[in-house]
Structure prediction request, 439 residues.
Amino acid sequence: MAALALIAWSSTREDTHYGAFESALSVLGGIYSGSLLIFGLSPVVPWLLVTLRRNAVRLPRAFRLAARHVGRTSRRTAAGVATTMVAVAVATALLIIIPAVTSQGRANYYPDARLGALVVAGFSAEQAATVRATIQQELPGGVPIVESGHAGGPSFGVTTSDRSSSWPGAYIGDQALLCYLTGNPSTPYREDTAVFVSPDGEEITSVELERSPFATDGSATVTSIPAITVESRDPHFGRLFVPRDAVQALGLRPEPEEFIIDPSHYRVSADEQERLDRRLTGTAYTYLEQGYQAPTAWWYVVAAAILMALSGALLATRSAGSQRVLLRMSGGSAVTLRFLLACRAALSAACGTAIGAIAGCVVGLCLIWPMTISVGWETPPRAPFETPWPAIAALIVALPVLAAVIAVLALPAWLTRSSRALGRGPSAPPEPQKGAPIP
Prediction:
C-alpha cells in the first residue's frame, strides 16, 4: 500500500516529466505492488471464515447454519473463497481503471485526417497515376479525389514567424484540399495566401517558404506570403495549407503524396476500404479515420475475472462438506438441501467479494494515476474521469446472488462432494434400521 501510494503521488506531480521508460516503470511498479497487496490478503480468508462461525448467532437465521458449516471447514473452503477474492479485486480495479484510461486516451487522441475521410498514401510519384485509377475503379463514379502534395523533402521547408515550430509536412494543394482541411467550402482561397486551420484558437499572420541550399543550383530562396487563420471544427485537427502556386513560384514542382476522399462529398465504408486496400497491397496503404476507438479487450478480462469469482465461490461450496452432513441438516428435504446450498454459496461469494472489492478499490484508485500519464514534453491536462461506484456496487451485490442461483440450479450431488451416485436422489436418504442411530 505504501508503494502504491508513493507511485500514485509521484504520478500526480505536474512538475515531473515522464518519458516512455519512466512511465512503463511506474505502471509496472504499480501493478506489482497491487498484486502483492491482493495476494497478500489470502491469509485473511480463513480468519474471516472462523470469525463468521463464532459470530453466526448475529447473522440472519437463514445464514447461521451456512456460516457454521463453512467456518467449521475453513481449511477446505479457504482456497475457493481466496480465488473469489482475487478475481473480484482484479475486476474491481479494472472497472476503475478502464474509464479513466479511456477518457485520457480520448483527450490525447489526435486524428490523422478529418472524421470519415479516407487517406491513401505511401506510393511513389511514378505510381500516383496507377493509384488514382484504382481508387476511381473501386469507388462510385464521380467521387472527387483530393490531392495533397510535397515539394521535394529536405530542399523545402515551411516556417511561421508567429510559432516556434516548423511545418515540414504542410499540406500543399489547390482549393479542393483547402475545403477538405477546413470542412467549409466558403473558405476564401487565394493563390498567394496560406491558411492555418487552428485547433486551439492560435493565429498566424505570415508564412515563410524556403528553398534550402540543398537545391540543385545551390541557392537558398525565402519567400514570405500572408496567412489567415481558420478555426478548426475538430479541437484536435490542425493543419497548415500552402497554395501550390506559391510553391511553384520557388521553382519547385509539388508531387502527389496523398489522395484523400473528402467526407463532405462521400463517406467511404469499411468494406470499400478493405477492397481498396487489397487492390493496393504492395503499392500504397489506406487509412480510414473513424475517431478514437476505445479499447474493448479490457472487458473480456473483467468478464473472465467475474466467471473465475463465481467458480471460486462454487468450489468453496463444494469443498464445505459432505452429502451426509447436509442431508442430516436438511432433514432429507430436497428443497431444504438446495436452500442450504444457496445460502452457503452466497456466503462464500460474499466473503470473497467483500475483501476483494476493498482491495480492488485501493489498487484501482492508485493505478489510475500512473496509467494516465501523458508521455511527451507538452503534457496535456488530465481528462476528468469518475469512479464507477454504481457498477462496483452492482458487482458486489450481484455476485453472491448469482452464486446462490447457480447453486440452486446445479446438481446437489456435485456441490456436496458426493463420492458415489445416490440412486434414491438427495430427497430420499437411506432409511435407518430400527434401533440404529440416524446418520
